[in-house]
Amino acid sequence: MTASAQSGAELLRAAALRLTDAGVEGAERDAQILFLHALGLPRHRLNEALTTPPEPEAAARFEAAIAARTARQPVSQITGRRAFWMHDFEVTRDTLDPRAETELLVETGLEAPFLRVLDMGTGTGAILLSLLAERPGATGIGSDISDAALAVARRNAARIGTAVAGRAEFILSDWYEAIPGQFDLIVSNPPYIALAEMPGLSPEVRDWEPWGALTDHGDGLTAYRRIAEGAAARLAPGGRIAVEIGYEQGPAVAALFAEAGFGHVEIRQDLGQRDRVILAHI
């Protein structure tokens, strides 16, 4: 039986086995996501699609998607999108995949009012755009050293709509260098993985996501030193700064902000009870 003559259920079972053999965790879940993506169907139509053979073009798209996943390409890169906070965001190989634990950074930023926000290392723009969507009166800047990432962020802003896109500006900048003005809130999910830790990452991260957004090619703290050193001058009176951290970096990053003159520094934990965010203000 040819691939295009197989029922959806048969194709799905075979694909899940291939993903399992390739070492993919959650193989059945990923196969379903990619199957629906290939067919262009919402999840509630999965059972219906399993009973009949898909069209040859859809079967070919599914085969290509499964081949990519067996090579350990992340699902979000294959489908081109990732759900984060309230929206779906475009994801490419030029950006980090927005992760659920990063939503704690958004939650922390929303704890107090702000009118002006800066998101450094914006990538997809997910953090900045999520914050602005929740605060209709606020404006913000997303910065990155990657033109390609900024292009993705601008497309994500346009996709969300002018109500948010009209309040977001994206700037090519190495941390604070090209950033004008002061801000009520600064946020960042910087590259914090030490170079020595990179070989131990999952293939989905190590082989497919941009290293420049993952590691400082040093001890994992270089970005925090730059951010902490320049933050006080860029914060408006009463302003706050929140950064995502690796789960073992809490004390070290908190110390950097204390040394930079921040009198109030908190370590916030994610749902897994791991250190995830540093919140600081003068």
Automatic annotation (TrEMBL):
Its EC number is 2.1.1.297. Residues 10-80 form the Release factor glutamine methyltransferase N-terminal domain. GO terms for molecular function: nucleic acid binding; peptide chain release factor N(5)-glutamine methyltransferase activity. One of its GO terms (biological process) is methylation. Transmembrane segments: none annotated. Residues 102-193 form the Methyltransferase small domain. CDD domains: AdoMet_MTases. Substrate binds at residues 189-192. Keywords: Methyltransferase, S-adenosyl-L-methionine, Transferase. It catalyses: L-glutaminyl-[peptide chain release factor] + S-adenosyl-L-methionine = N(5)-methyl-L-glutaminyl-[peptide chain release factor] + S-adenosyl-L-homocysteine + H(+). It comes from the Bacteria. S-adenosyl-L-methionine binds at residues 121-125, 144, 175, 189. It is an enzyme of class 2 (transferase). Methylates the class 1 translation termination release factors RF1/PrfA and RF2/PrfB on the glutamine residue of the universally conserved GGQ motif. Belongs to the protein N5-glutamine methyltransferase family. PrmC subfamily. This is Release factor glutamine methyltransferase. It comes from Paracoccus aminophilus JCM 7686.
